[in-house]
Structures are given as C-alpha cells and as structure tokens.
Amino acid sequence: MPRVSSRLSSIAPSATLVVDAKAKALKAAGENVVGFGAGEPDFPTPAHIVEAAVLACRDPKNHRYTPAGGLPELKQAIVDKTARDSDFACGLNQVLVTNGGKHAVFTAFAALCDEGDEVICPAPYWTTYPEAIALAGAVTKVVDTTVETGFQVSVDQLEAACTERTKVLLFVNPDNPSGAVYAPEQVRAIGEWALERGVWVVTDEIYEHLTYGPHRFTSMPVEVPDLADQCVIVNGVAKTYAMTGWRVGWMIAPADVTAGATNFQSHTTSNVSNVAQRAAIAALSGGLDDVLEMRTAFERRGRVMHKLLSELPGVTCLEPQGAFYCFPDVSSLLGRPIGASGATASTTLELADLVLLEAKVAFVPGEAFGAPGYARFSFALGDDDIVEGIGRIATLLAS
Predict the structure, then answer these.
(1) 47-285: CATH architecture
(2) Burial track 355-373 (b if 16+ CB lie within 10 A, e otherwise)
(3) Residue 172 · residue 321 · CB < 8 Å
(4) Which residues have a Cβ under 8 Å from the Cβ of 267 and sit 6 or more positions away?
(5) In Å, what is the CA distance from 56 to each residue of 48, 130, 135, 280?
(6) 4, 90, 322, 399: least buried by Cβ within 10 Å?
(7) pTM attached to this predicted model
(8) Per CATH, domain 6-44+290-398 is 3.90.1150.10
(9) What is the pLDDT of residues 339-392, one digit of tens each?
C-alpha cells in the first residue's frame, strides 16, 4: 500500500512559495537576488496593530481556548468592516474566522462541494484554488480568459461551461494574478447569471482595497442582493494590512453553511491564535489611513513596473488595475537564445529558471496560474528593486 494517500500525493506544491523559496535559498548563499515571486507587502504591520498583539500576549484570557469559530469581538469587527467597506450587511452567525485567507478558501469549498461537483474557475487563477477544489472532492472546470478581454470572464463563457454538475463559480475581484478589476455592471451580470442558474458563488475579496486609477472594487452580493443566500465571501487581513504572517482570514456565508464550516473547523484547527485575532480586531477597527498610504505606494510601483516590462522587446502587459501584480505575455521570449550562454526556454517554467540562473531575478511562471506564456511579477517590493530587477532582465535579453 502507498505510504501517502492518493489525495495528498496528487497535490502540487504552491508555485509561488516554491519560487520564493528558490530566491531565498540563493540569497542565503550570498547571491544578490531580486524576488518578484511572493504576493506579500514589504511594509511592516502598522504599529497600533502590533501593540494590540503585545497587550494580548500579556492578558491571561488569551492563553486559553476560545470559540472555534472566532472571538465574538472579531466577528463583530468583521461585520462592521464589511458594512463599512462593501455595504454588505451580515450577522455574527454568518462569520467564521479562519487561519488566513487560504484556509477560508479551502473551508468554503469543503463546506459546499460533494464528490464530483464542478467548480467553474476562470483562468488565470491563483495557484491554490484548483488544489483546494480537488481536496474538497470537486472538479475544477477551467474557463480561459485572455489579455484581449482584460482577463475577465464573460457570461457567455460561463453559460458554455455550466453543466448539471456545476455547483460553484469562483469569482476573484480584484484578480490575482492578472490584476484585473471588474466593473460594477460586469459583476452584476455575472451575479445575475449565477442567481438564475442556481449556482453558488465563492467570491474572494482579499484585494478589495488595492485598486488603482478609475477602477473600484464591487462586491457581488451587494450588486445582486438576492444572491446573498447562495454566496460565500472570503477575505482576510493579509494584503490590506500587511499581515501575511499573522494568519487571520474569514468567510461570510448563509448561517447554515457557516454552522457546518464551524463544526468542520472545530475538528481541524479549533480557534485561530487569540493574539493574532486581537491584532486583527485592531486592524479592522483602526481606520484605513495606513491602507491608503500603502495603496498609493503600490499604485506608483505598478505604473513603474508596467512601463519597464512593456519596454522589454516582444513583451506586452496589461496595466494593473488592482492587487499588486503585473501579468505580462512573455511568449515571444520562448524558443529564442537568451543571454551570453544562448540558452533557450520552451516554456515559461524553463524561462523562469533561466532568468533566475542568469540574471538572479525570480518571477512565477504562467503555468502555475493555468496561463502558459505569461508570468506574474509582484510589485509589492521597493521601487529600487523593481528598477533593478526589470533592468537585469532587459540586460539579459540584450546580451
């Protein structure tokens, strides 16, 4: 008999974390690596949030088990924050606090899907989504989008992909990895389609505050209120408040779904770290001044990166509308000699390894997101590093 179950053996490692680990290993060996891999703000967590955690450490009530579904105070902060930022009203019995946004994604699919159910997943998609869907026993039904459509799925595409087995539509806005942001009328049209079809929607809103220029976040159950009874919102503090390491996320769902998900969590993780939950309360109730400062920096960095990538010969790139990623088409670089060695890459997987080896620049290949020929570059790092990293690639291509 196999030592590891087939379910776990079939899981691919997180490509973004693999790239980040490669870059960090080279840095540890003394190499000067510029890493565009991880989707992680380079800002420190705001001071008032850290101070709340310090105080929580000293309070003995946080040294004990607390409710598996989350501290009531944090649930209330999530309810208040969601009403404030999205204009979506929900109750405490609809909220489950999870160990980060990734855990919320997994729990949402575990709560909704039975064996063989289909989940429509527009591509490019974040690398974790198909794995979470598979672990829930469901089947990922990929719908491809392109740069020509702004990496946005259409109702016609969804209708063509829908079958009698379709249970869920995954909707991500703003999108990782493409940086696309759907307009309100597009969100409304997709939500109305899901409502008419009786399809559940899992909407990932983790990048809600990171939109640029004229683009603004729109929450689907706000645009289509009747959809709220067949919709799960997943979110967290990681991106908005530079709290990736604190591991606090949440899902908001109809009360019966949340009850089932809470029972599930009671047997898997119990409560999220109380110290991290107290920090999250401070984040959600502390205003958005720090968030706006970070967003301003990300918007500037995104413009710089977009300009530099677009100047690379043969590379085209959608200007980022949200999140903190550029997602250029690098297919023209495949099959051609690169650098002094004259090495060639036939896939973006090989291209990523080649650029890391030759230029000491790390990015995530498009295969990780179901989009071969593309690459994800995070601009959640300093301006000088962006200029240096893309400059190295330009030098490599010119040599």
Answers:
(1) 3-Layer(aba) Sandwich (3.40)
(2) bbebbbbbbbbbbbbbbeb
(3) no
(4) none
(5) 12, 36, 35, 11
(6) 4
(7) 0.95
(8) yes
(9) 888 999 999 999 999 999 899 999 999 999 999 999 999 999 999 999 999 999
